[in-house]
């Protein structure tokens, strides 16, 4: 008899993080949509701010790291291979990225991309 409430509690506990993760993802993309900004604004933004940027690829810095440029400036973006490959992100490719500002103590601010859309090659 006592096992049923315990089992139910374990199931609820296991499912709760999944529900919160979906709400967090939705909130992240909602915040990023509101923060459709330029690169110069991104360079001044707070760490972990969700943003949307549009620009073109200037070059590949190293594996999964690219330089994105718009009319206001340029900055590094980190794009995991499961989002886009180096073949897709060639010099001149216009992209729209959704990501999180990542500030560092000893290197320039960059963006960890969570979604990328290729606008024009």
UniProtKB/TrEMBL annotation:
Gene3D superfamilies: Bacterial OB-fold. SUPFAM superfamilies: Hypothetical protein YgiW (SSF101756). Keywords: Signal. It comes from the Bacteria. The keyword Lipid metabolism does not apply. Residues 1-21 form the signal peptide. InterPro entries: BOBF_sf (IPR036700), CarO-like (IPR005220). It holds the Pfam family BOF. PANTHER family: PROTEIN YGIW. This is NirD/YgiW/YdeI family stress tolerance protein.
């Amino acid at each position: 008899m006592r096992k049923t409430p315990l089992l139910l509690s374990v199931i609820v506990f296991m499912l709760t993080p999944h529900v919160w993760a979906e709400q967090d993802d939705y909130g992240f993309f909602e915040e990023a949509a509101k923060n459709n900004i330029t690169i110069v604004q991104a360079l001044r933004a707070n760490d972990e701010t969700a943003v949307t940027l549009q620009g073109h690829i200037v070059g590949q810095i190293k594996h999964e790291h690219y330089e994105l440029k718009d009319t206001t400036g340029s900055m590094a973006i980190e794009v995991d291979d499961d989002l886009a490959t180096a073949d897709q992100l060639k010099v001149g490719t216009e992209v729209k990225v959704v990501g999180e500002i990542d500030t560092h103590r000893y290197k320039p601010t960059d963006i960890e991309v969570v979604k990328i859309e290729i606008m024009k090659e």
